[in-house]
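Thread: zinc ion complex, take 2
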Amino acid sequence: MKCPFCKFEDTKVIDSRASNEGSVIRRRRHCDSCGRRFTTYEKVEEIPLLVMKKDQRREPYERAKVLQGIMRACEKRPVSGDQQRTIVEELEKMLDEKEQREVRSSEIGEFVMEKLSQLDQVAYVRFASVYREFNDLNHFMKEVKVLLGKKP
Ligand SMILES: [Zn+2]
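Output below.
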């Protein structure tokens, strides 16, 4: 790191500490040439996660959008707000572990469906019907039978 005062190239780190819960590192540096001190901040570059839709369009991942879909499916159902938020947290943990910066919307949908199916069958079917975009009633009823048949 170049000294901001004399442009000397070789400066030393004399102190280093994390701030903002570890997401920023603050460093005190000392210039061997002019003897002055200065501070630098090192921060993780936040790369947005992109969601690839069925039509290949990509848009940034939005937690609020996923949560909204879950909330709609769970309306008047015995699934608490905490349980709904937990699904989103588990989803984000799963996405984090994959270390990819792009995910298919179908992967998100399948994950949420799997979690909802363990909590409430009605919420599960509601979410699935929106997610799978059923466009006629027969198709919907057929799918519902398949979906419900998977679980006791
Ligand atoms: Zn200097």
